[in-house]
Each structure stands twice: as structure tokens, then as C-alpha cells.
Amino acid sequence: MSAGVLLQAVLTGLSVGAVYGLVGCGFSLLAGLARIYQLAHGDLVVAAVLGAVLVVVGRTPVAAGLGVGGSVSLVVLALALGVGLSLLVFELAVRPALRRGDAVAWVAGTVAAGLLVREGLGLLLPEQGYAVPDPLRLDQLTATGVLTLPGGGSLPVRTLGVLAVGLVSGLLLDRLVVGSSTGRALRAVTDDVDAAALCGVNVRRAVLVGVALAGLLAAVAGLLDAPSHPVGAASGVMLGLKGITAALIGRLGSLRGALLGGLALGVIEQVAVAAPGPGPAWQDVLPLAVLLLVLALRPDGLRGRRPAEVQP
Known about the structure:
By secondary structure, the protein is mainly α. It is 69% helix and 2% strand. The chain has one domain (9-133, 148-297): ABC transporter involved in vitamin B12 uptake, BtuC, CATH 1.10.3470. The protein is built from eleven helices and two strands, in the order ααααββααααααα. The N and C termini lie far apart (52 Å).
């Protein structure tokens, strides 16, 4: 592998890893706050984007560019759908089970919610994949949309734009959790729900805020990822698994850890794809292998700890 190809693989890996990290941040946030694994999270990523595309573009999404008004509408609607779907799944499929202390029920509920979202999208968009327009218009940052890298490699400008937006989004949320009064309430519930309740923290409200933020991150991840490749109703399954892997590589409950885990996973994946040998066949196999390995060795994450139960 030449130096140029390696640099291209690393930068591409950081870009896709930023998306994995955002998905992982949402997963990790809910694992820390509500003590659940949101198994429908990947489906919500796709549903937020494709739902917005259905409204703004119609049932035949194409890669043609949107105007400024269409781009703004698509972004705003996707963000609203991400938040709304995340809250809806939590209220209908998770919270009743948490009240009963029934772990099997919330696992089954999140799986069923993911399947319902997937099948609903499949009825509306039956093709295996659709081209989705880029509402962020990142390919227009340069005349050609491509950058030449040292050593002979090349990189779409959009790749660097996705990396920048992904990192800024993740770090802004991390700063919100660290530096605001809302963030202090989220951290208190994550650290010790009983102590937080005794100190006057509204646990239910804090959990709902976390659920909404997880949905917001899902929508941002979808808006960054979807224009890069054809997207179908089932596309969220693998993306969700990679987000779970990113969260487990970091520490469950840590946004920064999930973001760093996503970056690491993306680089490992893309370098393996670019290396001589199986090549693209590694793209989905390797993250799944990492996920199984982490679950076998440290099911609460590489630096995780098992938190107390919560009943929001």
C-alpha cells in the first residue's frame, strides 16, 4: 500500500468513523441514562433521513441537488423526525418495561420498534437503495469536488466536510453535557440515579432530554451518511451495529469515548479495505468481528462499569 493510498484510507476512515461515532454517542447516552441498549437506533438514523426525503423530494429520491430552501427543509425535517421518533420509541417500547423492571420487555420492544420502522419504510420505498441528495452541498466547496493528496491519492471534498461536521457536532454535545446545568443533571443521573433523585434532579425529564439528544444525533449522522451511497430501508441495521461497536470501544455513557471509538473503528475498517487481500469484503465483517470480541470480553464496554437500574 502506497503512502498516498494509506493517507486516503485514513482520512476516509476518520470521516466514516465520525458518523459511527455520532450513532455511538446516541447509543451510549441512552445506555448511561436509561440503562438500556437502544437496538432500534440504527433504523432511526435511516428513518429520519428517508422520512424527510419522502416529504421534501417524494417517493423517487434522486441525487440531484436541492435548492437552498429544499436543503434547509430537508435538514430541519430530518432533525425533527429524529427527535420525534426517538421519543416515540422510548415512550411506547421502553418506558413501560422500565417501570416494570422487565429487561426482556425493553429488549423485545426496541427490536420490534426497529423492525416496524424498517418495514414501514420498505412499504413506502420498496427499492433496495435510493440516491439521496446532499442537503449540506459539501461537494460545492471546490470546483471539482475532489482534492489531490500527497503520494498520488485523491479524496472527495465532501469527505473532509463530513469529518468536520461530525466532529463539531459530537464535541458540541459533549461540551453541552459538561458545561451546562442540563448537562450536569444528565451526568448526575448517569453516575448515580438514586443520588441524583435525592438531590432534586428530575430523573424522568433528564432521561427524556437524553432520548431527544440521541434522536438529534441520529438525524445528523443520517444526513452526513446517506448522500454517500444508496440508502434503503434496511441500511440502518449495519450502521446501528457499527455505532454500538463505537460506543463499546469507548465507555458506555461517555460521548467523547463513543466519538473516539467511532473514529478508531472507521480508520481500522478503511485501512483494512484498502490493504491487499480481501479488500471491500472486510468493510462489514471487521466491525462485526470487533463487536463480538468486545461483547465476549467486556459487555459493558472496554472501560465500562455496570450502572444501577433506573425507572424514569
